[in-house]
Amino acid sequence: MSDINVPLSEIKDVVFQKSENEVIYPMAVNFANVAKWAKAFTLTVPALPYGVKSCKIERYSVFSSESTVGDLLVLGDEPQTATVYYTDCIRAKAEPLHGFEKPSTALGGNVVLGDKELVVRPGSSNYLIPPSKTELPLTVYSSANFSCNYIYEQTITCSWEECDGCYCTNGLACGESYTNYLDLPSGLKYATALKVNLSGGSLVGFNNYDDCGCDGCYCSDGSACHDIFTGEVSASILPQEIIYIVGDPAVPLAYEGDVKTPPTLRAEVSEENVTFFLEGEAAGTYNKSKSAVISKIEYLNF
């Protein structure tokens, strides 16, 4: 009798005739340790949803000789399918788009016992700027700027409550955690507004200005040309929260004191930088000094 060679991939089902009245359809068969067959199923994954930077499916344990350990699918712009085999162990690893919390993934368990469908849900929008390389508080004088490139500390954990006994859907083992430090662009291009907290500030100037009527050489009283400043005044910029709609003009600041012209703060925003300008006269027509302290910055997407 000649041998019959059939590729494992072409075997759809295996039937064992246990007895005259009993037939068994096993899901997996080890053919004398020469080849291991397992029933094939379909894994379906969605298109990558907005708010999720990346997501991939990894197969980390196999029985079938047709299976291999490693990356199985990477989510893209279109839904996809892949073949998985009975008792394959798979897991999803997803990373958030900057400005979003950690995505959630669900496979209905990590072990393949039938057809599977991956569900990916983006995390909630979180527009709080991570800690800046330029330390806050930031003191703004006539103008100041700082780079909006950030070090973002991201801690990922696998709690025992979320674990299936071996792994969480984020790919970590039970009780495992790690901290990932990412050097990210600011994400300001996604912002429609900035929320700035001022912890305070000060304005100092002079109330009067007298040029003595100088004709270029002498004052009207015959004395040498001189400038006269009298009556120093000051005011305090109050602690406050202000919101800039990107592109809007300067925002008046709340203050108390004898300053005649309200100070303003404006921001010029690009994709990677924001520059703040503190403007307004301290008093009269001459400003001696001014400063405002920014203690916190957030960018918002309305």
Ends distance: 76 Å
Derived structural class: mainly beta
Strand content: over 45%
What is the alpha-carbon Rg in Å?
A: 34 Å
What is the helix content? Answer: under 10%
Oligomer: single chain
Number of helices: 0
Give, in order, the helices and strands.
Answer: EEEEEEEEEEEEEEEEEEEEEEEE
Q: Low-confidence runs (pLDDT<50, min 5 residues)?
A: 127-132
Q: What does the average pLDDT come to?
A: 79
Q: What summary fits the major beta sheet?
A: 6 strands, antiparallel
Instruction: Choose one word for the global shape.
Output: rod-shaped
How many strand segments? 24
Folded structure, characterized:
- The chain starts with 15 loop residues before the first strand and ends with a strand.
- Mean pLDDT is 79; it is low at 127-132.
- It is mainly β and 302 residues long.
- It is 0% helix and 49% strand.
- The protein is built from no helices and 24 strands.
- The strands form 8 sheets. Strands 13, 17, 18, 19, 21 and 24 form a 6-stranded antiparallel beta sheet that branches. The protein has a 4-stranded antiparallel beta sheet with strand order 14-23-22-20, with no helix packed on it.
